[in-house]
Every structure is written in structure tokens, then in C-alpha cells.
Fold this sequence. Notes:
The protein is an alpha+beta fold. Helix content is 45%, strand content 12%. Helix 3 (87-94) packs across helix 4 (98-106) and helix 7 (165-182) packs across helix 10 (239-248).
Amino acid sequence: MEKKKLRCPAGHGEMKLTNKQKHMNFKGVDIDYPVGCFICPTCGLEAGTLAQGADIQKTMADAYRKKVGLMSGKEIIEGRKKQHLTQDAFASRMKIGIASIKRWEGGIIQSKSMDKMLRQALSGHLCGDLLTGNRPFVIPRVKMALLYLEKVIGVKVLKERDKMLFASKYMWYIDMQAYRETGQSITGATYAALPMGPQLNNYKDLVEEIISATVQQTEPLTEEEKWIIEKVAFAFPRTRDVYNASHRETVWKEKSTGNTIPYSDAYRLTEL
Ligand SMILES: [Zn+2]
């Protein structure tokens, strides 16, 4: 903590550095977090909170993580060091990008399922799945994500007796982007390189199931996931945009027909 002295403007001499508990509602959870500030012992005037910006964000994020039972940034760092792992090695063990590790250690809040995986990896287990993007495949989530996308772009992409020509490409970008940003796909789907572009693996067997899926009993999309879908929607507002973009991707072009496209390829996408 920086050393700083402050004198009371009312002439009472030096003010005292005190840790004050602040209270707020953060993401729907009540949290208390400490903020360093100067208080005059004589008149009680408060001034100059020490932690600002990123510091405060980090303190709040950690208070939140503690409250809801997620690992804090510090706990992740300590756990990783106990395993003698660099951020890079830890990322490979979890089969995610190093950026995610940096973000979580730096104060960005991980999802519950990623927290579970973090704990697994920190207890020495190999984990992570590059075919599903670290999530079990949940068909209703495909429908949920596509319905949300349709709302944003104002075009219907999920159609009966459809080859999912556009829907699959949107889903592919959405899942890859989610994996890149959060360490986890949104649907758990596996994708394959087909002549007409990246496609949901076994899509022929899945189309009807996706269309008739009921989304009510499925874990709803988080704010972060919605934001990722919006990002893809804004990048490819028209169906032909997503079609053309996916055909320019090396990770698709280099694969033989039918080969799966692992989530690690998310870092090599060029159109998003
Ligand atoms: Zn004073």
C-alpha cells in the first residue's frame, strides 16, 4: 500500500489511515469489502480513499468470489505455485489459453464450472476437453444461443429440415469465442470441417432435436455469454457474412473433410 500523509483541512493535524468496510450489491450478491481511507480522529472527516480503479475492482471481485464460494485470484496464484506451474504450463494442463489464467488471477470472475475445473487442475488432475470446449454437450443450449442470436440480428437461422448451413457457422464462432474468452464453450458442441464449412458434428442427427428442444430446464445464458453472442452477431450481421468469413479461416481450410476442429483452434481464428 502506498505511503501517503494527509492533514485535516480543518486544522486538526494528521489524519489517520483506516480500513473502512464498504457494503454493496455486486452481481446480485451482498458483499463487504475493505477500502483504505483517511479519517480525522477529531472531526471525523473522511478523505482520499487509497485503492482506486483496478484495485477496487479486484477487491470487490474477490469479496464476491469468497461469498459465492469461488477461488480468489490470490488462491489461484498460490495453488498454481504450489504445483510449480507457470501460467503457461497451468493453461496447458487445463487446455485453455494463458489469457484466461491471467484474467482470473488478475481479478476477473470465473464461472462455477471453470472454478470446478480450476480446483481439479490444482489438485494435479489432467482435465479439459478440446473437442467439447470444456463443457458437456447440452442440446437445448444450442437452441437457446441461436434464439438469442436471432433476436439480435433479426433473422431466423434455425429452420426445419435445414442443413444448419448458417446456424452452425454462427454457433461455431460463438462457441469458439466463448472458449477463447471464458475457457469454456457455451454448448459443449463438437465441430467438424465439412465441404460447406465448419459444421456441428453429426448435425443430421441433431437438427430435429435442437429445434424441438425445450430450453426451460437448461442453465440460462449468463450475461457474459449473451455478450459473446452479441459480439458475433455484430461481426456478422448477415448470414452470408458468417458463411464467407468461415470459409476464409485457415483452421477450416487446412482440415480434411470430416475432421474435427478442436477448440484450441479458437486462438487462430482471423475473422473475429
Ligand atoms: Zn478534522
